[in-house]
Amino acid sequence: MPSLRERLRSLGPGLVLAAAGIGAGDVVVASVTGISFGTTLLWAVVFTVALKFVVTEALARWQLATGETVVHAWVTRLPRWVAVYFAGYLLLWTFLVGASLSSACGLAGASLFPQLSVPVWGAIHAALAAVLVATNRYSQFQQLMKVLVGIMATCVLGCALVATRDIGPIFRGLFVPRIPAAGGGAQVLALLGGIGGSLTVICYGYWMRAAGWRGADKLPTVRGDLGLAYVFTGFFGIALIVIAAGVEAKGAPGARIALDIAARLETVAGPAAHWIFIVGFWCTVFTAMLGVWQGVPQVYVDLVTAWRGAGRVAVPDRDLRQDAAATPVREHRVFMLALAYLAGPPLGLLWFRQPVAVVVMFSIAGAFFMPFLAGTLLYLNNRRDWMGGLANRSPGNAALIVCLLAFGLVCVRELLGVMRS
What we know:
Blueprint: H1 4-9, H2 13-21, H3 24-37, H4 42-66, H5 70-76, H6 80-112, H7 118-135, H8 138-163, H9 167-175, H10 184-194, H11 204-211, H12 219-247, H13 257-269, H14 271-308, H15 329-343, H16 348-351, H17 356-367, H18 369-380, H19 384-387, H20 394-420
């Protein structure tokens, strides 16, 4: 049996998934949780990553059973409105996530080297990530991600150890589920929506293909890979909550909360802790950018390819490699256009205030994605004529129903918040 160290070294697509899913949003929601409720809601982080594991395992199992991605299935096996809804959501999400990641990377860059402004650093990071993605094979890209994730984990987990005052409340927060009366329920829903990513989970299918993982015999490998990935995601979210609770940060708006935590760490453990946390924050948001820049354009390629061949229900599981020189010309063109869309137009929002109408539309559309994903997987994975021996059984259906209900509550909360504003 391989050791834990060997299993960690063998992390492949799951490592990229974890890096892409942990971004500025995770930093913000985990930090706000620690500031407002201390370590009381640590159990909710564990619950959240468990739900994300269930959904990602289901879409990976669909791909292993059928040889096609869930995106392809939305186009070819479900009513047309499903693909239309997803395409509209994808365009909107891509634009705003591009702006969000560029802004967060700009903030981290300006914190390390204030000679340049946040918008300039954001543009530099967006362009650099696009070049790294466009010019590297997946294997090289994965190695780069391993290095950055290692730095990120060392910095943030180290700061959590420094900030920990008493281990007792941490254990109680993990193993004694409790929802504080004043705002606790809303914060649990915020953790459900903010930890571990949303649309990025479907990119796991493309990273599976790049790793050559096909067929039912790879299911144990996939489950082990995803398990380690979400354990890492959970530890990271817990560490952020522990840090925010331990240093008694004040809660600056948005991603700037990371700067407030770094400043408070300096008062607790000295200047070194301040800079270590800032470096960890930079690695967090830049690896998220790299993961999104690498994975999301492949969603566009898959969507366009499936739409062109929508009359054909099944396709062979072929290798959608990130190596630009090896992909067909048409797919390469779609990939590069999507990459340019991620790295280019959203930068305008760094200099100009985000239009309120676009933000409202994004909140409404985005709130539906995780229940949309869980719901469609619940249908697809119960079709034994498509799934064969990998079809859902009772425990899998129960787990997906819990996901659907939990993410549905997040959706309702977001919609009510939009209507009140």
